[in-house]
Amino acid sequence: MAGQLGGQPIIILREGTERIHGREALSGNIMAAKAVAGAVRSTLGPKGMDKMLVGGSITITNDGATILKEMEIVHPAARMLIEVAKTMDDEVGDGTTTAAVLTGELLECSESLLNQGVHPTIIAHGYRMAAEKAIELLDGITHTITENDDEALINIALTAMTGKGAEASKDKLSKIVVSAIKSIVDEEDGKKVVDINNIKIEKKVGSSLDDCALIEGVILNKDKAHHNMPDKVKDAKIALITRPIEFSKMELEAEIKISTPGELQKYLDQEEQIVKDIVDRIAATGANVVLCQLGIEELAQHFFAKANILAVERVERNDMDKLIRATGAKLITSVDDFSSSDIGTAGLVEITGHGDDKFLNIKECSNPRAVSILIRGGTEHVVDSTERALEDALRAVGTAVEDGKLVAGAGSAEIELALRLREYASTLSGREQLAVLRFADAVEVIPKALAENSGLDPIDMLVELRSQHEKGNKDGGLNVFTGKVENMWDNGVIEPLRIKTQAILSATEAAVMILRIDDLLAGTGMPDMGGMPGMPGMM
Ligand code: ADP
Ligand code: MG
Which residue in 66, 97, 327, 386 is the catalytic one? Predict the structure, then answer.
């Protein structure tokens, strides 16, 4: 690549660098992003189709986030959509398809403006204005609820799970989700905080979805350390120990010299005594269950078994955190310094399962602030898709409890936004007005795709939706099961407001970022652009 100065070529870029400039670069980027959005569009909504992802293993899913994650997209502009999905996943845990589809449509809608000669920066500016206005407008259709509004929370769970392959028992699952979230809500500075990490999901293929259960406590895929220990402890008093219970790992100051067999025996006796002392002191706190983050040596296991204590070794650190919240125990970080006040409680601790598949159940906790959900299902596919559906529902309900703000789904929020954004556009002058109008068109892609995916005519549906909203039916959405425009709030199809705000913010940001790129440089050491130019073969 070279410039020209007084006839003398000036080398600017390393040899072999590929460069695509201006409109050509922009068109290529838009095309790539649209292709990715197009790939997930058909999965949107309760009637969305599934995708079969064939890699190392086969996954069948209609979960946008999973599809985007596994598509192994290499095109840099297309990868922005994965970033969008990831942000959605991190911030709200749902709405990934919505955000990716919206990004694609914002770009699609920008093309006609670009063709008319509107500069990309003007479009970018107009889109930003529209997004800002949209966030403000969403306020006007927000419903507020409290943490105790069970019916609304259950509807949020149901809406998030619809179409995710957990249909058969979604009534039961939605109740599990709501109870789980309600037991882990924290209050920080007067604000509700929900940390999903306090809900442990344990999967087990076998039995059926009807046997999915909420456990008031923690289930771990773990067995007891020694076969002579009890399998079942009622009124459990639980010690959580982060130190290894091993003689060799104990910090002993004394130096030991052995020169005769007698001294060796004495040393061994002493070792036994020290280990026994520790077990005795733990038992003296009243503990009858010992959960250790590290190893428990055989001798100690033996003494625990003799004392009828159920001990489990190598419990993971993040599980220890859940156990603290579930049982009220405090971590014991030194084998020299602990007391009965560090001990937690549970109504029942029990080992279940067979063979290599043993579960340690710490349940019937009196005020558990960490709980578990056990997923059962006939096949691995059922178990996995139930897990994905549950995760979406947990995050959606968690977000709703934190914010207390909801909107009706089924495209109703988007139609209302489009209508009001068009009104807003008419107050603007200049080319930004055109961009805001195109933004309004773009958000309608959500009801449009919901209609398409349900075999309904998208044009007829949009016309009907718009007319209902003009009449003031703010919650009018597309009931994909009846094929009619109905009040979707009353129908219980509701979503956290944050899904909508975050989808608009993320999609706008990604679209704007792509619009502002006018140069693509690819050389060695730069990301693969999937075979520039035109980037065919990206999917
Ligand atoms: P995302 O990854 O964006 O969450 P989904 O496939 O979960 O994608 O689809 C979400 C969309 O489906 C939302 O717009 C939501 O309002 C809509 N939706 C959910 N349940 C229904 C329903 N019963 N009728 C119509 N639309 C629904
Ligand atoms: Mg969803």
Answer: 97
Ligand 1 atom with least separation from CA of 491: 23
Cα-based distances in Å from 456 to 112, 129, 316, 480, 489: 26, 32, 50, 8, 21
Cα distances (Å, whole numbers) of residue 167 to 22, 164, 170, 172, 419 = 48, 7, 5, 10, 33
| pLDDT tens, residue by residue, 149-181 | 999 999 999 998 887 777 778 888 999 999 999
Instruction: Name the 3-class secondary structure at 363.
Output: strand
For 396-409, write each residue's pLDDT tens digit: 999 999 999 999 99
Kind of pairing between the strands at 519-522 and 18-21: antiparallel
Residue ranges of domains in the chain, CATH in brackets: 11-143+408-522 (1.10.560.10), 146-201+390-403 (3.30.260.10), 218-369 (3.50.7.10)
Read off the pTM. 0.79
pLDDT above 70 for 253: no
Residues 6+ apart with CB under 8 A from 219: 200, 202, 359, 360, 361, 362, 363, 372, 374
* Half-sphere CA count of 325, side-chain side, radius 13 A: 21
* Active-site position among 43, 63, 94, 508: 63
If you measure from the C-alpha of residue 110 to the centroid of ligand 1, how many angstroms do you get, rounded to a whole number?
A: 25
* Token couple for 492: 């219980």
Give per-residue pLDDT as tens, 197-218: 889 888 888 777 888 888 888 9
